[in-house]
Amino acid sequence: MTNLAQANLASTNNMASKKLKLPDFRQTKVKKGTQRNQHTRTRDDHATETTEDYVEAIAEITDNAGVCRGVDLARHFEVSNVTVNKTINRLQRDGYAITEPYGPVSLTAKGRKLAAECRRRHKIVYQFLLALGVDEQTARVDSEGIEHHVSPSTLSLMENFASKR
User: Fold this and answer.
1) What is the dihedral of CA 158, 160, 161, 165, to 10 degrees?
2) Under 8 Å CB-to-CB from 70, ≥6 apart: which residues?
3) What is this structure's pTM?
4) Reduced to 3 states, what is the DSSP secondary structure of residue 40?
5) 70 with 92: CB under 8 angstroms?
6) Closest residue by Cα to residue 146 from 79, 52, 26
7) At residue 90, does pLDDT exceed 90?
8) CA distances from residue 92 to 77, 95, 100, 128 in whole angstroms, order as listed
9) pLDDT for 86 beyond 50
10) Residue 116: pLDDT above 70?
C-alpha cells in the first residue's frame, strides 16, 4: 500500500470514528406557518412535478408531431416504456389524459389546462432568469426545476421583473 493510500485510509477511518451530531428536528416545536409547513409544501410540489412534466411534454409533442405516443415520452424523458406506461395510467386515473393500449396519448380538457399553466410558469421563470443575466442553457435547465416550486405571488414578481428588462 502506498503512503498516499495509507493516508487516505487513515483519514477515512478517523472521519468514520467521529460521530456527526445533528439536531433532532422531530423534537423541535414548530409554529404554524414556519419551517415544517414549508417542507410540506415542497414535498407536495415534488408530488405534482411528474404530472406537470408529462402533461407539458404530451402537449408539446402533440403540437410538434400531431400525435404523442408512449415511445415519444420515453425518448423525451429518457426513461423506460414501463415507467411511461405507469405514469400514463396515473394521468388517466387523475383525469389528465386518455389513451387506449398501443394508441396515442391525448390530454383531456383538465390536462390541457394544466399543460397551459405549466408552460406559462416555465416561460415566466425562464424569462426571469434571462433578465437576471443567466445564460440561455442554464436558464432552460434551471427553469425546468424552479417552475414547480414557485408560489403565485413569487411568480407574479418574477413576471413583473422580467417584463421591465
Assistant:
1) 130
2) 81, 84, 85, 88, 99, 105
3) 0.70
4) helix
5) no
6) 52
7) yes
8) 19, 5, 10, 33
9) yes
10) yes
